[in-house]
Amino acid sequence: MLKLRTGRRIYYNVFSYVYDAFIHLHARRDAGDTRNFLVEMANPEGKSNPTILDICCGTGAVIVAFANRYPEGVTVGCDFSRGMLDKAQNKQTSGKIILIEGDAATLPFADESFDIVTCSHALYELKRPTRQTALQEMKRVIRSNGLVLLMEHEVPHHPLVKILFNIRMMTMGSADAMEFVKGGLDPFRRIFPDVSLYHSPTGKSKLIVCRKHRF
Which stretches within 28-157 are classed as H helix? Predict the structure, then answer.
């Protein structure tokens, strides 16, 4: 088993106390629009009770949205930060969301357990070997006809916002974070045989949709 990234784990345990306020200040209503776009694009082929996994779930905004959309489904949030999971636990009102502490590179789930796997604005924070391992893990736990949906940042066009974005990339501690965000679909096509690209209504995020097999 890969060793959990201890320093980042402590950072996010502390960051969890202000994370939602930070997202609200940074994204404002765009966060809700992007989240709704992700949920709409999942479309589990007519299933009213899909099994859904949100990796690096943070304080639970995405998995709560899925639980509200599919109240009969099985919704699971996984994050390596106990602080983030505690905040996510406080958000759910139905008690139907399962929250599990775990690392994206060593998912604690059996093969082909889920109809939908999502990961929103988190892969760029991982170093390249860990990121590729995490993608392999997503492929392992998704069912044959399931979808892996990966939301990532677009590079901003506004000069000031772009400067702030570049500063954020530099503070991530991963030398290839910007390369990954600017890059195309190659990192995903190395793992998945069927990869499609979409853009959020706001234009601030891109959605990579991956299938385990070609149909």
Answer: 30-42, 61-69, 82-91, 128-141
